[in-house]
């Protein structure tokens, strides 16, 4: 029986796919916009593709947090034997 579930929302997260699968971590992707094209971190763009596109970009990429609906969808699809869930994330500030 699973006692806890975890989600993660960090861009280009350090967790490898093997770790995500081994610990059954649900990843909610951040949105990355590069030259007007929207990507979802880890879904439609890989870290190496991000680096390549960033090097060629006309402007710095922008990011956006996942929507409330994206988190709700993940939490609603967690197995019924999960007693609790936690969110692991980071806060980025611009000065």
TrEMBL record:
| Pfam families membership | DegV
Q: Which domain of life is it from?
A: Bacteria
Q: Which SUPFAM superfamilies does the record cross-reference, listed alphabetically?
A: DAK1/DegV-like
Q: What name does the UniProt record give this protein?
A: DegV family protein
Origin organism of this chain? Answer: Weissella confusa (Lactobacillus confusus)
């Amino acid at each position: 029986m699973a006692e806890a579930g975890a989600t993660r929302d960090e861009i280009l997260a350090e967790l490898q796919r093997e770790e995500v699968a081994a610990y059954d971590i649900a990843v909610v992707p951040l949105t990355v916009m590069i030259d007007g094209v929207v990507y979802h971190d880890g879904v439609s763009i890989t870290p190496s593709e991000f680096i390549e596109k960033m090097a060629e970009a006309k402007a710095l990429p922008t990011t956006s947090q996942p929507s409330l609906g994206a988190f709700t969808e993940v939490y609603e699809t967690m197995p019924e034997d999960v007693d609790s869930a936690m969110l692991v994330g980071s806060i980025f500030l611009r000065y």
